[in-house]
Amino acid sequence: MKNVLRVVLAICFTILLSAPALAQTAIPPPPKPADSGPSLEATMQFIQEKLSLLEEVKYTLYGHTNEPVTNQVIPFVVEITNVTIDPESCNIGYHWKVSVYDATAKERDMQIPLRDVQMTALSTLEQYSKNSYGRDGNNILVDRTDPPVFVLQVLRKDGPANDFDFIDKDLANRVAKALMHAMVLCGGGSKPEPF
């Protein structure tokens, strides 16, 4: 019995002596995540370059109204000019102008505060028309466009969406991905609730 007690005491004594050494053992920090893509500056420069390509998007809209039912053929020109970026404030600015029948219908300076962006959505102009019918004065349902048009919506938490018309669907997808990457780098997007 004395031998067992001595062994137990020896083990306890060894543990007590080694405990401070164990407590002082440095635990390395977790590894840094791998580089997750281009920098904010490079991403915003890409967005500026690609949105500047939208200087003038021309198409003919074929649609109809419901009350009264009338067919519509409307020539559109959508212009995006003066695209500016500010990586420091996470803002993209541009001038937006829509002309119908060679007359300016809407025109304004626009901003995209990337910290407020929730998501982007890409659809055909026909689908976009169905989703927005009756809102903001939209009373025309689009049956088709020539050439086909794709609408990239940049949706914010609170506030208006920014819409861009593209003829090139691949370019629209690339800009959507870049906008989402810039949004993440700026701290935008939906934040999960803590509980």
Question: Which properties best describe this structure?
Answer:
195 residues, alpha+beta, PH-domain like, five-stranded antiparallel beta sheet, three-stranded antiparallel beta sheet, 8 strands
CATH topology: PH-domain like
Reported CATH architecture: Roll
Mean pLDDT: 83
Low-confidence stretches: 12-34
Briefly characterize the structure:
This protein is α+β, with helices and mostly antiparallel strands and 195 residues long.
How does this model look, in words?
This protein has a single domain (40-186), classed as Roll (PH-domain like), CATH 2.30.29. Helices cover 31% and strands 38% of the residues. The chain is built from 4 helices and 8 strands, in the order ααβββββαβββα. The protein has helices spanning 2-23, 40-52, 125-132, 169-186, and strands at residues 57-66, 69-86, 91-100, 103-113, 117-124, 141-146, 150-156, 162-166. The chain has a 5-stranded antiparallel beta sheet. Helix 2 (40-52) packs antiparallel against helix 4 (169-186). The chain is globular. The model is unreliable at 12-34 (pLDDT under 50).
